[in-house]
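Methods — Computational structure assignment.
A single polypeptide chain was analysed. Its primary sequence is given first, followed by the predicted tertiary structure written as structure tokens.
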Amino acid sequence: QNKLLFARSTNFGETFELKDFTDKVQFPRGTAGHMVVTDRKYVYLFFIPFDSQRVAQERAYIMRSSNHGETFDSAHVINNIKIKAGSRHSIVAKGDTIVFVQIVDSYTNNIVVSKNGGKTWKKVKTIKERKTEILWSRNIAISEKALHMVFMRASRKYPGGETFYRRSFNLGKSWKSEKLLTDRDGNSSFDAVISASQKGELYVAWRE
């Protein structure tokens, strides 16, 4: 129940090798919020530890592997970043560069970047909506030239909630004009996810 486990396959899912990182991270109460991100060079494992009362802590850690998940470096805390319990965070990586979306509240999120494999982090942008608008499902993807984000906005103009897309060419410091992806037919739009190829192809899915 309190173990941090990781499995990898090097033969297209034919077989899996199980690894136990419980001793390495040394959080006896266990961890939560796990995410695995990878590119052609590294594998990153993201997690949030529990405290002594089995409540998720307000900080997150990341571990990096440079040998396809065979071994991982020591865990590094995403410094100076407060993690909002229960939020759906999004994280992507390209080489030594990692981009993390910190959910502050329903109106605000921060773009936080590490350029040294997760050892140190810097907030590069705060995206803040008007109090009359609410954001959900902020998910990101990274391609060779850009950072991509999809999200759901609910407001007086979009009472049911619609899915939007925006992109950045400088790792989130500034963003191009957003685009409406859904059809404004009155149905609510939720849980948008996005994937990007290095050629610039984008794939977005959501539910209504």
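Note: The chain has a mean pLDDT of 82.
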